[in-house]
Write a structure and sequence with these properties.
Two copies of one chain form a homodimer. Chain A is an alpha/beta fold. In chain A, 33% of the residues lie in helices and 25% in strands. Chain A has two domains: 126 residues, FAD/NAD(P)-binding domain; 203 residues, FAD/NAD(P)-binding domain (3-Layer(bba) Sandwich), CATH 3.50.50. The first copy, chain A, is built from twelve helices and 24 strands. Chain A starts with a helix and ends in a 14-residue tail after the last helix. At the A-B interface, β3, β4, α5 and α12 of A face β3, β4, α5 and α12 of B.
């Protein structure tokens, strides 16, 4: 969004990314659960910026910033800048227990998604060959940690796979006996939604056989076991597959901005930005998207969603444009919140929109429509539509591949 | 095919595969060149055999055969059998130079295809950042070794990517300056086709700027360089990307059959089978598909194509059925050859069919139609059709993702 908006100014734009594609993260859980293929939710960055002739795209990894010399450091090179826009996002966060990543992978990249898909499908395959009933029970137990939108959507999709997609596929096990548990440390799932919608989402999950446990904190992870605490009581749950959807941590570029440009970071490593999204003392460095920490007028932090990032990207181009033309700067950034939505499973969703709150089938259709529209390439809209329609009619998921090898 | 045909008999069938999906290999080159996603040409084996209730599917790796005790050895277990059908296929073959695999990957698995895609796209990305003109030239040179159908189809698709798909995507390089070279050790490409069609295919390739060199043998591979010999003269070609489409080698299960059941292997490690596709001295062990070596009535080896494998799979079920019912055995296996086809690029193909030989647009349409029909799942037919139609209209390839990490 920033590169596109900046391309309309008389400037040279260089977009550096370590991947050659733009990823539509809100649908990543559908790749992790075999409903879509990676390429369906990704588009080559070069294609997207083909017509913006003053935009150059470089495949490369930004490793740091030298604010004094105005250089972006790359692995194998450096790039001078007049204005720098950092939109490097976040990774998942294990709150100091980074060794848990191996045991409970998170969901931020295509590789994360195919690894998650591999683990989910492999658990059913291993259960089919397992003769020990306790071990088989553990293989058929799936725990999702974190009750935000990603966790809710993952748990819903997992339940659909077990209850419907895999029906009749196995001979020794009944996939519908699989247990899906959603653990949330806070008092309710979807904490950024209204309490009413949280409660509805919880009931909808329970209707499709997802066990939801709120106020339940993970205290220890081991291979095949999750130890949790709920109030005063602790418990160890046996589960072969644990998926992580709790907490985020800013890109290492945030730390580099702190060291080089004196930026302040919040507890999750996100960069505190001023009202114009620039760093204090470095008006030529902007931070936008999930990596930026900024509160709204009511003092609440802006949510880490695509809408915020897109609006911030466009806003930065406005600030730069005003500086170039010598006009007065635009008013401070304000997030125009159109609302949020999450699917809970087939035909069920919650929507907390600016204009209304609703749930159920209507919310689900709205979710499908909006997410289709936000896919940047027409071909992908068509492909995703075909797959969704097909899945709806047949309960099938066409991308159920176990690929790659064990990461551990 | 064997499992499906056997399922109609009063037998218990166990299908063991180390992958959870059936792969339609003839379209693998389209994954390697970003036209299709892996899941589009793969279908979960369990889904395919869902209704065959006497068929059990096991995800597992067969490591060998104990013919005397009638056991299939698995990594982590063993499986008794009365009748064994081995259809473990072939890998690519480097003629004793297995160290070349790292330098010039072949194309047999989904992972091979995404690795090839990664290398092809990465070469253009590196060329965009390269300032040394010689090095840039090497990055924009693509060499395909082997002029069989896979090599021809790969070279054609590579040329289309360079000439059309990437047009306008780069700022420092012109992708259409990329060179694609197809090397074939024999006298003509597509040696199993009629000489007339070979010549037409060669002209069609040259029309789309693929350099074809026949009677040219690779004598040495190094990082970024291919040494070839043509008659008495040698030459070293600089190329960052070398793709291998020459030669196949039987699965290690062939060697296990040789050791355990006294099977004879041909030079490529394929198992020589009798007229009923069973091993001499072990009528209960059948070998079908690419791993089986068998000549046709004219003394020519049966080609390693899907049609042969499918007919052989069905044939084995007939033999087993006759044994069970005590009827006389069916006549020796005969391959009913409907012909072969290969695409050369957009709108161009050659077809060497039983009923006619033709080339050009009509052959191409026939190729598209037949390959769509052979995809086993209706959803995949629809998805592939959408992507082919889209690519035809826009020259775009939607699955241009660089994923995974450097294998080396």
């Amino acid at each position: 969004m920033a590169a596109r908006a900046l391309s309309r100014l008389a400037v040279h734009v260089t977009l550096v990314d370590r991947r050659n594609f733009h990823l539509f993260q809100p649908l990543l859980y559908q790749v992790a659960t075999g409903a879509l293929s990676p390429a369906n939710i990704a588009a080559p960055i070069r294609s997207l910026l083909k017509r913006e002739k003053n935009v150059r795209v470089l495949l490369g990894e930004a490793t740091g910033v030298d604010a004094e010399r105005r250089l972006l450091l790359l692995s194998g090179g450096e790039l001078p800048y007049d204005t720098l826009v950092v939109a490097a996002g976040v990774r998942h966060h294990y709150f100091g227990r980074e060794d848990w990543e191996r045991l409970a992978p998170g969901l931020k990249t295509i590789e994360d998604a195919t690894e998650m898909r591999r683990r989910i499908l492999l658990a059913f395959e291993k259960a089919e060959r397992e003769t020990d009933p306790l071990q088989r029970r553990a293989l058929l137990t799936f725990i999702v940690v974190g009750g935000g939108p990603t966790g809710v959507e993952l748990a819903g999709a997992l339940s659909e796979i077990a209850q419907h997609t895999l029906r009749g596929d196995f001979r020794a096990i009944d996939p519908s006996e699989a247990r899906v548990l959603l653990l949330e440390a806070g008092e309710r799932i979807l904490p950024t939604y209204s309490p009413d919608l949280s409660a509805r989402a919880m009931r909808a999950l329970e209707r499709i056989a997802v066990g939801v446990r709120t106020s339940t904190r993970v205290t220890e992870l081991a291979d095949g076991a999750v130890t949790v605490r709920h109030g005063e009581t602790g418990e160890t749950l046996r589960a072969a597959t644990v998926l992580w959807a709790a907490g985020v941590k800013g890109s290492p570029l945030g730390a580099s901005l702190a060291a080089s440009a004196g930026a302040s970071l919040d507890g999750a490593g996100r960069v505190l930005v001023g009202p114009d999204l620039a760093l204090r003392g470095h008006p030529e460095i902007f931070v936008v998207g999930d990596l930026a920490a900024r509160n709204d007028d009511a003092g609440r932090p802006l949510p880490g969603v695509a809408q915020v990032a897109m609006q911030q990207g466009r806003y930065v181009a406005k600030v730069v444009g005003a500086r170039l033309s010598g006009s007065p700067p635009p008013p401070p950034f304000r997030y125009l919140d159109f609302g949020s939505m999450a699917t809970i499973g087939r035909g069920a969703a919650v929507a907390d929109l600016r204009i209304a709150r609703f749930n159920g089938f209507v919310a689900w259709m709205a979710w499908l429509f909006l997410h289709l529209m936000y896919l940047v390439q027409f071909a992908n809209r068509l492909l995703v539509f075909v797959q969704w329609a097909w899945s709806y009619l047949t309960w099938n998921r066409s991308a159920r591949l176990i690929t790659g090898t064990d990461r551990q």
